[in-house]
């Protein structure tokens, strides 16, 4: 467990030294969501209708931005090989790296989403559901994305390939995440959406670090 | 028992699988042609005109088999890839690689014929119907698998990375299908059932089954052709390959 | 048999474009794919044969 926390701490410290990388994803999220009203027009009814989808798609793409760097630096300087040889299981260290990635690239999006939601004329309760859905959904995105990041580690054209591999797998999260907010706006029950998101998160938390570890071992061979 | 196990492992080596595949290909072509002719005969001359959909419904005789095969090939591909990962058998990984383009073709055919179905029946080339949407995502999964294998130069690493991706895909396909279905019922309410007319379900089913068998045999034949090319490409520096091409 | 003439068969009750489009697309792609696969096999065989001939030539020159 201490190895897990040490990995999280180390990755957070490293990221804080290079703040621009974290901020890029956040700015991307803000800019993309702000572009849509400019492209579509400022009509509140329409904006309210498309808000959940836009915020979720922007969150998907913003998470994707940070993924290629998840293992690249450690792979480049040989830290990853040290991790694979260390006495603590690699899966645990990988889980720590994924958690750090979520804290850096996912959590800021969750915290920013209510503010950005205001641009789309969402009311307070819809903003609450949006934040809750993103809170459940963004860790799922980091977990699934980590598998893709490990598979494309050191592969040419890695960034684009990563998007091609990971985006289709993000679709369920998108459907239930955006669907929860839409259902709430339409006056329907959102418990089903959120519990399915939570179930997928549990499933991914169990399997994704394992698959990521297997992919990393292949990349290290 | 032990003997037969050894027998099977023998065909797990590229050297003995290469000629075996070569001998099997003509048989699968013949089977594909036979089933295809019978299936086409039923689709055009035995199956009667549909009361509601006229002659346009005959598209299902290629649409449904293509959709079935696109899903089935993904499962088979993941099976071979997983076997290659678990037992480190080279031929099964090559088989997975050879199946992917055929699976992608089936998914593409399913989408294309789905569009040809949609235009006269629903009035538009594309509908965000649960089945068509899942098929599109499946097509993306095939593209991802092929792109990943093409991007990795070391064939052994490509095999293993592809295997993990295929297995992750297999776990996700039911989740994706279920979520798309859920999304579809929320947004549209009704889905149109392709196999609605009960009166001629029997002939239609036979036609579809025969066509599906034809597509199946075709897929095996073309995948075996491709796996032969892959074997030669990968084993080109070995002694047996030099003697295999006289 | 529900067709009275070849023309009627080809017209497909007004659905000609869609029915023949679907079956035609399947036929075309299912001819192209085996062609590409067999060409790939032919090409790798040809290059292997060329390689072997080069090897043989080299060893002949060495013995002379």
Describe the protein's architecture and organization.
The complex is a heterotrimer of chains A (221), B (246) and C (64). Chain A is built from 9 helices and no strands. With 221 residues, chain A is mostly helical. Chain A has one domain. Chain B is built from 8 helices and no strands. Chain B has helices at residues 2-10, 14-46, 60-87, 90-122, 130-151, 155-187, 201-234, 239-244. In chain B, α4 runs parallel beside α6 (155-187) and α4 (90-122) runs antiparallel to α7. Chains in contact: A-B, B-C. Chain A binds chain B through residues 147, 151-152, 155-158, 161, 164-165, 167-169, 171-172, 175-176, 179, 182-183, 196, 200, 207, 211, 214-215, 218-219, 221, and chain B through 137, 140-141, 143-144, 147-148, 151-152, 156-157, 160-161, 164-165, 167-169, 171-172, 175-176, 178-180, 182-183, 186.
> How many strands of chain A?
0
**What is the count of helical runs of chain A?**
9
How far apart the termini of chain C lie comes to: 75 Å
Poorly predicted runs of chain C are none
Helix content of chain C: over 70%
Mean pLDDT of chain C: 87
Strand composition percent of chain C: under 5%
Compressed to H and E, one letter per element, the order of chain A equals: HHHHHHHHH
The biggest beta sheet of chain A reads: none
Topology:
The complex is a heterotrimer of chains A (221), B (246) and C (64).
Chain A: H1 2-17, H2 19-40, H3 44-66, H4 69-76, H5 79-85, H6 90-118, H7 124-151, H8 158-185, H9 191-220
Helix pairs in contact in A: 1-6, 2-3, 2-6, 3-6, 3-7, 3-8, 6-7, 6-9, 7-8, 7-9, 8-9
Chain B: H1 2-10, H2 14-46, H3 60-87, H4 90-122, H5 130-151, H6 155-187, H7 201-234, H8 239-244
Helix pairs in contact in B: 2-7, 3-4, 3-5, 3-6, 3-7, 4-5, 4-6, 4-7, 5-6
Chain C: H1 6-11, H2 16-63
